[in-house]
Amino acid sequence: MPKPLSEYDWEDWKRLRPLSHGLKTARYRWIDRQYRRQPALVGDPAAVARTIAGRKVLVTVAYMDPEAIDLQASLLRRFFPDYPYIVVDNSPDGATAQAIERIAVSHGVPYLRAPENPWQKSSRSHGIALNWIWHNVLRPGAPEAFGLLDHDLFPTAPDDPFAPLATQDIYGYVRYAEPANGRWFLWAGFTMMRFAAVRDLPLDFGQDWFIGLDTGGANWGPVYSRYDLDKLAQSPSRFVPYRDGIGTYDGPLQWCGPWLHEVGQMGEPEVMRDKRRVVKDILAPHLEAARAPNDRSISAGR
User: Fold this and answer.
1) Is residue 288 in some structural domain?
2) Which domain holds residue 51?
3) How far is CA 300 from CA 82, 194, 245, in A?
């Protein structure tokens, strides 16, 4: 949404930015409304919604990476067997989507393929897919709480992401506006919300670059602006280079506590392939335990 008029300076007014921002926002919202009314390309959102009522549910938006879903599904089953896990596929390529569907089915995980996305840029594409999930699965499903996970975010311990919701409405990894303007948002790849706290709010998981916020930041107005950040527990976060001898920016991994984020869309293709190898090495002992025939999954509540 456009900034408050008081935040536009004289140069903005000379360039008619308040008007252009307002028109662009109206266009984005119209496209979003049209998109969320479209049916799934694969799967029955209403049927999936009926399975999550009153439960804590984890949802990921898959995108062109079947292996990531295989890794994530294995580890979530290992560490959080009591939480439903839903894969919503935003992949534009049909063959890749079919591969992701086969993996979801092999894990016994509900699979939905989102409608064809109108956006090419990953951030805006991800945001509109999340809004489709909210309107077609989460809001009608009425879970106790829901968590949004990036598809390359992997747990390495039974660190319950919903535990902080016992004393607060929202939890996740906090990011800040760029450039800084006092606003903040929860990264859409690690966001937890109590459903009762947000069910009647006009949620928007899209970006809002007019106020410097990436995917999930459009919830600044309806959600995040209502909270004092200093009073909220937040996910820890640290970025490290995936191997020795390179800078963090050239090949980052992110640790959100014991959750490992591959940060999959940064770097050259050969770097990304090598980073996936390193990530799989880190995850190997957990995957071995998860895939063992006599695996006894570790419940977060135990």
Assistant:
1) no
2) 45-236
3) 8, 18, 36
CATH code of residue 57? 3.90.550.10
Backbone torsions φ then ψ of 257, nearest 5 degrees: 65, -130
Total number of domains constituting the chain: 1
DSSP string, 61-81: EE-S-HHHHHHHHHHHHHH-T
Strand bridging mode 111-113 / 85-89? parallel
Going by C-alpha positions, the residue among 78, 72, 220 that lies closest to residue 147 is 72
Question: Which residue in 109, 79, 90, 55 sits closest to 259, CA to CA?
Answer: 79
pLDDT at position 302, please? 41
Structure tokens at 220: 């600044």
**What residue has token string 């945001």?**
127
The distance from CA 127 to its chain's CA centroid, rounded to whole angstroms, is: 9
pLDDT number for residue 133 = 98
CB contact set of 168 (below 8 Å; sequence gap of 6+): 232, 233
Q: Examine residue 20 and state whether it is found in any structural domain, yes or no.
A: no
Crossing angle between the packed helical segments 269-291 and 66-79, to the nearest 10 degrees:
30
Give every strand in the sheet of 111-113, ordered side by side.
111-113, 85-89, 56-62, 145-150, 184-194, 170-176
Q: What is the pTM of this model?
A: 0.93
- Successive 10-residue mean pLDDT values, the chain, 302 residues: 80 84 87 96 98 98 98 98 98 98 98 95 93 98 98 97 98 96 97 98 93 95 97 98 92 97 82 95 96 71 46
